[in-house]
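Input set for joint prediction.
Command: fold jointly, output tokens.
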Amino acid sequence: MKILVLGGDGYLGWPSALHLSRCGHQIGIVDNFARRGYDQELGIASLVPLASLRTRVTAWREVSGLRLEVYEGDLTEAGFIHRVIRAFRPEAVVHFAEQRAAPYSMIDRDHAVYTQVNNVVGTLNLLYAIGELDRDIHLVKLGTMGEYGTPNIDIEEGWLEVEHKGRTERVLYPKRPGSFYHLSKVHDSHNIEFACRAWGLRATDLNQGIVYGQQTPDTALDPRLATRFDYDSLFGTVVNRFVVQAVLGLPLTVYGSGGQTRGLIDIRDTVECIRLSVENPARAGEFRVFNQMTQSMSVLDIARTVAEAYPGDVEVERLANPRVEADQHYYRVQHSRLTELGLIPHLLSETLLTSLFDIAREHAERALPQTILPQTDWRTPSATARTTPPQVGEMLPQARTVRQRSSADDTSTAAGSGAP
Amino acid sequence: MKILVLGGDGYLGWPSALHLSRCGHQIGIVDNFARRGYDQELGIASLVPLASLRTRVTAWREVSGLRLEVYEGDLTEAGFIHRVIRAFRPEAVVHFAEQRAAPYSMIDRDHAVYTQVNNVVGTLNLLYAIGELDRDIHLVKLGTMGEYGTPNIDIEEGWLEVEHKGRTERVLYPKRPGSFYHLSKVHDSHNIEFACRAWGLRATDLNQGIVYGQQTPDTALDPRLATRFDYDSLFGTVVNRFVVQAVLGLPLTVYGSGGQTRGLIDIRDTVECIRLSVENPARAGEFRVFNQMTQSMSVLDIARTVAEAYPGDVEVERLANPRVEADQHYYRVQHSRLTELGLIPHLLSETLLTSLFDIAREHAERALPQTILPQTDWRTPSATARTTPPQVGEMLPQARTVRQRSSADDTSTAAGSGAP
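tokens >
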């Protein structure tokens, strides 16, 4: 199958491209290198060194004999994505090409607006290109479990059967997200559902949990094939960040009580979910939603699991929660559709954590410990009042440290950190 | 009370500003004249001639002795709205300043993207300005009944109590809108609800029905105070368009069967709803939603009502529906919160229609009949693949006529037209 992977140079886009390639598909990668640009903007970096996309593609060819086509450009330029789809003629498009960090979107007004415009306009341009060129192309779009928030009722897979005053309706599951990033994905979902309804497009919205891990069988074949290992407060996801904190001898930092429960997924399962979604396309006109996660854990439980797996002392610290989230809440998620398609989940295990500790230790000298603590208080808007989105290379404006040790309610067993 | 009216030069913004001014409030008007620009872009025009904003403000001062401050600029420029709020120090902001025509948003990719960016970014900039400068400012935001779509269950006022698997939650009412314009308002609602939750802002989201009428007691005082009378296929709303078709001796055009049922409201009630919302502010942190409509009617019933009120022959024609909407559906809407605050509705009456016929007749020589029939098929995406939003003065690209007489199912009594 011919598959375009948008954002194919990113943390998950790259291993997904390799997995699909190895499974016999013909892959085109689209990227504008925005993610590498955020590193420059913010002074952060992947713990594991990254080869350039050109080097990666060469390495994959050497290792596997398989070719990857590359298109460099920006989805917010409508003409670009239109030309790429016309040239490559994909049967499926996997869309990872969005700004994907909630904390980044909450830095200030510029970053909120940039995130929503980048994500929403990129997806709109893609919908129009598909709608005009070939409505049969299956769109596989990355959403997030964070779109749902933490409702007091079970989270279903995208749709909800509602009974109200004696009548029934199947509705899009009501969303109540917790950041301008998460909101951008909610906006995307609404736009995509409409395009399916209006134009008969076929789409799969993958509401993904927090991804952990850094290796897939493909990326492990050669150091040049490695994907990102983020651990900073903006792009680092909770398990990976705890692992780096443990290895660096830093305290694991919990936001609030650590009672926030989140859906998780192993990076090896992510790439397999992408394959399963692509190989089992949605019907024409169908907007289907899969909850792409394999287990739920509270942040405190994640911290305890990492601490127990680590072969050394792990200190523990609790931070005032900079986020807008409940840290005690109901959380029960339906996530059976991908397992029905054949996913065999890897649950969070000591084996996986041990291999992550090894990777972190190997690259520990590259770590930037000052990037780990949160700098942005989500409850205080910061309006920088510029008129253009931030450019790659500009520095993080007016970051404010929200570090704040809680004393009264500190417990020595508490360990954790916010969700991504 | 000091009140900023964003979009205060528009169809409803202008009469709302006058009504609030006459009721003793101190008014600032913000506008970028985008609505007048769309006229130039599309070759359409208000049936009633419009004075410039400067002339309008002068006329209001002469007639009432009251002053209106004016700020000319664009909400998508964050610095502009930040400066205006800092200078004017409003207690409430009434936000009409969005691209408000569903058909306009469906012309092509450019217009879809322009609509979503203009509306979403403008509102985000406003939220940040309020959040940073004075969280006590009450935001009164114009939404639309079209955000809900036509669900098979009763439409409540913004929130829905859901019982699911034995548990309950109060959720944002699930939306399923029918155009990229309506979607932009759904995006806004989600962003605003988050800002209330995260920053403690206070907001009222007014999901307004289709407005009809052209005069309020204030605009009728002087021809220079008149507001718009749109009747074209893009900006004309259904009642006003039928009135003009009748007066011009043109057939009333129904989209599909005319069974589409919509909420309606008289322009005199709109301005009163704005006053009631402003004078009874939301609580700090509250995101409340009022359904701003006074009655529901099917398009066919609206057509019959107009035809019966018209003192002459009215021809009838049915068009293939260019829109993405059901024309047979359940529609029952809760809309009691504004009447609880004191609204006394004007229902659609022969008196009102007669006065609208008179206004239309008075200006009939200005009519542009070629602008009345729909030119855009919403079920066919048109990707013009430009990279910038349309500029004022550019012409409507590649308009396609979707006029199509249905023959078999045509009935001589059918009369109507699509909702706005």
